[in-house]
Amino acid sequence: MTRRLVYLTLTGVLLLTAFPLYFSFVVSSQDNSALSQVPPPVLPGANLFDNIRRVFDTVPFDQALLNSLIVSSINTASVVLFSTLAGFAFAKLRFKGRTALLLAVVATMMVPTQLGIIPLFMLINKLEWHDTLLAVTVPALVNAFGVFFMTQYLTEALPTELLEAGRIDGAATHRLFWHVVLPVARPAAAVLGMLTFLNVWNDYLWPLVVLASPENQTVQVALSQLRAGYVQDYSLALTGTMLATLPLLLVFGLLGKQLIGGIMQGAIKG
Amino acid sequence: MRAWLYKADTRLSPYLYISPFFVLFAVFGLFPLGYTAWVSLHDWSLLSDEHTFVALANYRELLADPYFWNALRNTVSILLLSTVPQLIFALILAHLVNRPLRAKTLWRLGMLLPNVTSVVAVVVIFSQLFGRDFGLINWVLESFGLGRIDWQAGVASSHVAIAAMITWRWTGYNALIFLAAMQAVPKELYESATLDGATAGQQLRKITIPSIRPTLIFVVIVSTIYGLQVFAEPQLFAGGGPNGIMGGPDRQFQTLTLYMYEHGFNRGFEFGYASATAWVMFGLIVLAAGANYLITRRIRSSR
Prior knowledge:
Shape of chain B: globular
Radius of gyration of chain B: 24 Å
Largest sheet of chain A: none
Structural class of chain B: mainly alpha
Distance between the termini of chain B: 58 Å
Strand order of the largest sheet of chain B: 1-2
Low-confidence stretches of chain A: none
Shape of chain A: globular
Mean pLDDT of chain A: 89
Largest interface: A-B, 94 and 101 residues
Order of helices and strands of chain A: HHHHHHHHHHHH
Oligomer: heterodimer
Structural class of chain A: mainly alpha
Helix content of chain A: over 70%
Mean pLDDT of chain B: 89
């Protein structure tokens, strides 16, 4: 295959991945009736702010953005902390049952826990967490992927000599964690944090099941309400989509390179 | 005292550090999944406090319901239509970028871009593109002199539209995973193959695919598990709400997870019946993962 053909194909792929997002920006800046024109609009219009106002009038979108920000931030912090703790233990500490327990972590990554949704719903009702942000936050405080990811990283990146030196100085394990492990873990923690934030921000099924009232909904559930109207108002729905996606795209633009590095690193060892 | 504290610290700290994961997984992951089996043996509804033991009655009823078989057919069809092209495209794409390239980061960012977009956003966007009256795809078809397609209305066309959404969102991500594995393949293998006059396609089939087999197995299984549980794509394509749960007015794209949701949360909270559905799905996932593993294992290792 010639070089030129490779670049041509890759450019085509790039257009294919970027076009739907570009087009939804176009639609979100147009009047809804503009969509029925032939040919359809391909350049942004002047209705963006009008549409944004309509989104906020139709659903409590500011509240939904705030809810998603709260849930995603808490879960990002907790997943990174708990995964680093467990990853440290699995990578560098000696204890009985280590191998078996690590194997259990790997196995649970494959378990389709979504299928336990009915008893989980019953449990959340028992705890009286129904229709609260606790229902979406607590079950996602830590996950198997995070633990495995940090274990892989710390096994290689954390020098055992550094830990031994700390031990000789008489440092307790938790001091080693704060002063030796956390600084070393920072690059992997950033990637894991980003992946977690994306996943929690984009989660849909479980929040849809447990968050009933509009003021408690997350962004994705609020978005689905915009889609569900009797009349298909695409400029409204796509404006909401843009509002919910833009923050992620900004973060992605800034840190995407590290994110790709992290995903590929996790894949080689995984 | 100091020695005792030190001993306690080194003995217990590891368990303390791994306990958050195991406790949370036990309570919110494993317990619900296991309890699903117990609930599935009962006539169990949110609206009544009595839970009569009915043994396998829920399963019998489920297997006798034509809508269940419809949902199973739809799920398998969407799974095949999305997973097969997705993996083939991902392999080719990874193979293309697995060489010295200008603007390396740009191509990779482009590949991951769709995966950063949420499922809900993807469906909203693609529902416009696949719209019957004002959809962009129909407009393109028409300008080429082909007829419009009512994408939502037909069984095959709606499956294709949903599969397109899944493929768009996951191809690049999987390509990156494949690329990572390909970079570990020794370059000399390709060099000697090139000397022997092997084409790029032959190299992909004879060197790359056998070398990245473990990654291939992993990606195939993960995509299958995802595909068997597809929910947001059909639900929102049908417009969300109660209509969405049916997967279109004629259930033409109702998947198994939608069927489970319909009985569990939309129709009188029939927890027993929905749990039986969940367990059947669990069995199917185990079967499919096992079959995938056996099939992909037959790809020969390169050496």
